[in-house]
Amino acid sequence: MSKPTVLILGATGFIGRALTAYLVKGELATVTTVDKTLPECAYLSKEEEALFAKTTFMQKNLLQPKAIAEIWEGANYDYVINLAADTKYGHNDEVYAERVEHLSLACAQEAAKHNPKKYIEASTAQVYEPTEKAKKEDGPTDPFTNLAKYKLKVEQQLVKIAGLNTVIVRPATVYGPGDRLGIAPRIICGAVYKHAGETMKFLWTKDLKINTVHVSDVARALWFLCTANTKSGAIFNLADKNDTDQGKINEALEKMFGIKTKFAGKLMSGMVSKLSMDSIVAEVNDKHVAPWFQMTKDKGIAITPLSPYIDQELLYKKHLSIDGSAIEALGFKYEVPNMTEAKLREWVKYFVDLKLFPDGYLQ
C-alpha cells in the first residue's frame, strides 16, 4: 500500500524541519519539501540534513506565482501543510502584507486548483486578545503583534477559498531544537548574564503568561490533523499543560546558568512603557547584543543566526494564554506536557553541537 503524499511549504524553517524529521523517520508519508533556503544553508543538524535527503526538495521563492505553480507540475499531494511566511517580529505592514498575507493566500489558491484532501495553515495564538484568561478557539481576537494581525487576515480569507478543505492551527510560543524567536532569545540572555555575572531583569511580573508548546508536539499535531475527522475551516490551539509564564521560564534559566533573575514589577514597567519604551528597549538590546558577539567570538564562532534581541512588540504587558485541549478531544496527546529545564538544555545542546552557541555556560 502506497504512503500518503505530503507537501511541506517552508520546510527548512523551525517547525518545518521538525515536521520533516517526524514524517521521514516514522516512514509515515512520501514527503516533498519546499523552501527558498537550501537545506545545507539552513543550519540543520547532520541528522536533519540526512532526513531531508530522503525527501524531494524544491528551492522556490513562494512570492512568485510561477514558482508556486511549478510545485504542482506533474504532481498531486494528499496533504499540504503551509509553514511558509516571514515570522520575524518588528516588520512594517508592507512586509507582512507581502510575505505573510499575499504568500499564504497565493499558495492556498494554487492548492485549491488541485484538490488536496486537506490544507493546513500554521497561524499563531498571538491573534487572541492578550488577557490572562486562557482562550479557546472561539475566544475574542485582538492581535498583539503585527505578524499576528496578518496571520489573522490570512485565516479569515483562507476559509473563503472554494473547494479547499482547510484546518488552521494556532500554536502558543513554540520552543525546542531549532527555535530562534520563541524562548530562544531569553535563553541566550541567560547566558549573557552568566557571562556578565549580573542579575537578569525583565519587565512586568513573573505572572505574565507566555504559554508554550514543544516543536515535536506541533509536528505531531500537524500530521494528526491531516487524517483526523475535521470540518473545513476548523481551528485548533496548540499549547502544553505547563501554563508557562515569565516566572517559570526564569526559574529554569536560573538553574541552567546559575544566575539570579528578577522582575521590574507593574509600577516601574508601566512607567517605562508609557514614557520611554523605544529608548529602553534599544538600550537593553544593545546591552545584550554586544557581549553576545564577544562570547561567540571568544569560542571561535564566526557567524550564528542566534541573537538575544527581543523585539519591542514582545515586551509589553500582553499575555499569551490559550487552552490547547480541543485537539485532545479528537484523540491527540501531548508528549511534552511541560516546559522543563531539561527541554531547554536540549535546545542549548542542539546549537552547541552545530557550533552556533558558545559552550561552557551551563551549570
- How would a crystallographer describe the biggest sheet? 7 strands, parallel
Strand content: 5-15%
Number of helices: 11
Helical fraction equals: 25-40%
Tell me what you see in this structure:
With 363 residues, this protein is α/β, with parallel strands linked by helices. It is built from eleven helices and eleven strands. The protein has a seven-stranded parallel β-sheet with strand order 3-2-1-4-5-6-10, with helices on both faces. The protein has a two-stranded parallel ribbon with strand order 7-9. Strand 5, helix 5 and strand 6 form a beta-alpha-beta unit. The termini are far apart. 46% of the residues are buried. The model has no long low-confidence stretch (mean pLDDT 95).
Helix-strand blueprint:
Blueprint: E1 5-9, H1 14-25, E2 30-35, H2 46-52, E3 56-59, H3 65-71, E4 79-82, H4 93-112, E5 118-122, H5 146-158, E6 166-171, E7 173-175, H6 184-196, E8 200-202, E9 212-214, H7 215-227, E10 234-238, H8 246-257, E11 261-263, H9 265-275, H10 277-298, H11 341-353
Parallel strand pairs: 1-2, 1-4, 2-3, 4-5, 5-6, 6-10, 7-9, 8-11
